[in-house]
Design brief:
Helix content: 40-55%
Strand order of the largest sheet: 8-1-2-10-9
CATH class of the largest domain: Mainly Beta
Distance between the termini: 39 Å
CATH topology of the largest domain: OB fold (Dihydrolipoamide Acetyltransferase, E2P)
Shape: elongated
Strand content: 15-25%
Radius of gyration: 26 Å
Order of helices and strands: EEEEEHHHHHHHEEEHEEH
Largest sheet: 5 strands, mixed
Number of domains: 2
CATH architecture of the largest domain: Beta Barrel
Low-confidence stretches: none
Structural class: alpha+beta
Mean pLDDT: 88
């Protein structure tokens, strides 16, 4: 264990905090235009123009063997589209059941459907995203509850009333959920603005793509002995430090990132 007396930039990757020394950092910018480059490693996103200088971009997620942020966004889109379709089909099944006066067997519990289970377990610190999610609560519960209401109407032989109830919810609450699914997809995408930490050595500059920059802090302990059991890829890390709150920070060895990219360029 040894002391660290200079500040570190702490950044987040998929919920885990990593750190890079402030020494090589030139700037931090929101990722914007990226130009694809042929025959590069998967972790090289491409290049970008920063103040007239062409800078290669390394996706730290891919370097760690994780899904890219865009892949996670695509997964979220697919999930929301699937849950939207579930409720369209749920209401269509109820509509057919009412018209044919047959038993409806799908769940009436809003917490038991696939969306309800996901909704109850999903966690986010994004205030806007949480605000939008809360808007699902009323129409989602209303949709599931009408299966009970239509059954009561059918038992009273009020088949026309049951059909009108389904049609009403189809045109109001279901449409509201469909709109919310579209809005929340866009909000999720907008909340995932990647940051580029631009670093340099004596030869070149390099942009490290991260999920977000957490803070700039002084770290006092470097625990090299715990590398073996904790590191995802110890080749690009120098050790583990602890923040003031006691949580660990995995420390990136920026020179090894430079070297990995330069070795690849020399092989081409």
């Amino acid at each position: 264990m040894k002391k660290i007396n200079y500040p570190w930039i702490l950044f987040n990757i998929k919920g885990t905090v990593y750190g890079i020394s402030c020494e090589p950092v030139v700037s931090m910018v929101i990722l914007s235009d990226v130009t694809n480059v042929a025959k590069v490693p998967e972790y090289v996103r491409g290049v970008t123009n920063l103040r007239g200088r062409i800078v290669p971009l390394v996706d730290i997620r891919k370097m760690l063997g994780l899904k890219s942020l865009q892949e996670e966004i695509n997964d979220f889109y697919e999930l929301m589209d699937a849950r939207k379709q579930d409720h369209i089909e749920w209401l269509t099944t109820l509509e057919n059941s009412v018209r044919n006066n047959t038993e409806f067997t799908l769940t009436t519990d809003p917490h038991a459907c696939k969306f309800g289970k996901w909704y109850d377990s999903f966690q986010t610190n994004d205030t806007s995203l949480r605000f939008l999610l809360n808007k699902f609560d009323q129409p989602h519960k209303k949709i599931h509850s009408i299966a009970i209401d239509t059954k009561k109407l059918q038992e009273k032989q009020d088949f026309k009333g049951a059909e009108e109830l389904v049609e009403s919810v189809k045109n109001t609450d279901l449409q509201r959920m469909i709109e919310l699914f579209a809005v929340i997809k866009e909000e999720y995408k907008n909340s995932k603005r990647e940051i580029v930490i631009v670093i340099e050595n004596t030869k070149s500059q390099l942009g490290l793509i991260v999920d977000e920059v957490v803070s700039v802090e002084n770290l006092s302990e470097l625990e090299e002995e715990s590398m073996e059991e904790n590191m995802i890829d110890k080749e690009i890390f120098t050790g583990i430090a602890k923040r003031k709150n006691g949580f660990p920070v995995f420390l990136l060895n920026y020179e090894k990132v430079f070297n990995a990219l330069q070795r690849r360029e020399n092989m081409q």
